[in-house]
Amino acid sequence: MLITTNVKGKHPLFLEPGHAREAINALYFTQEKLPFFLYSFVIMPDHCHFLLKAPKENSISRIMYTFKRAVVFQVGQGALWQPRFHLVIPDRIRQVIRYIHMNPVKKGLCEKPEEYPWSSASGKWDVTLLSCFDI
């Protein structure tokens, strides 16, 4: 599932490197509490994209609630997120991964996806490698 969640008012909160790092920490904290497969992600200045697969017992709503709550706690700002998130079940997984990784390039934040530190494309973060049988 491709999930997009936006910062309230499109405020560029994650331009601050410490806040972007806390968002990634919150993502892994959430994965530890409510296990799911994380295939790709990017923390953009004012929104986040995640490609993940959740076991049936962990709903996407619960995962997103936990993630958003953890970010609010870590960043120390209330009313941080727009109340909802956008969910798409993609047909072409590899195109979605490319879309996620190219997001910072399209916004002019870097020249190549691997240069953007707050993305799974950077190689700094742990994600599940896709096989042809995943998702």
Radius of gyration: 14 Å
Structural class: alpha+beta
Morphology call: globular
**CATH class category name:** Alpha Beta
Number of helices: 3
Topology pattern, helix = H, strand = E:
EHEEHEH
| CATH homologous superfamily designation | Transposase IS200-like
Number of strands: 4
Please, how many domains? 1
C-alpha end-to-end distance: 8 Å
| Main beta sheet | 4 strands, antiparallel
How would you explain this protein's 3D organization?
The protein has 135 residues and is α+β, with helices and mostly antiparallel strands. The chain has a single domain (2-122), classed as 2-Layer Sandwich (Alpha-Beta Plaits), CATH 3.30.70. 35% of the residues lie in helices and 21% in strands. The chain has three helices and four strands. The chain has helices at 17-33, 60-75, 93-106; strands at 2-7, 37-43, 47-53, 81-88. Strands 2-3-1-4 form a four-stranded antiparallel beta sheet, sandwiched between helices. Helix 1 crosses helix 2 (60-75). It is globular, with a radius of gyration of 14 Å. Residues 131-135 have low confidence and may be disordered.
Summarize the structure.
This protein has 135 residues and is an alpha+beta fold. The protein contains three helices and four strands, in the order E-H-E-E-H-E-H.
Walk me through the topology.
Blueprint: E1 2-7, H1 17-33, E2 37-43, E3 47-53, H2 60-75, E4 81-88, H3 93-106
Antiparallel strand pairs: 1-3, 1-4, 2-3
Helix pairs in contact: 1-2
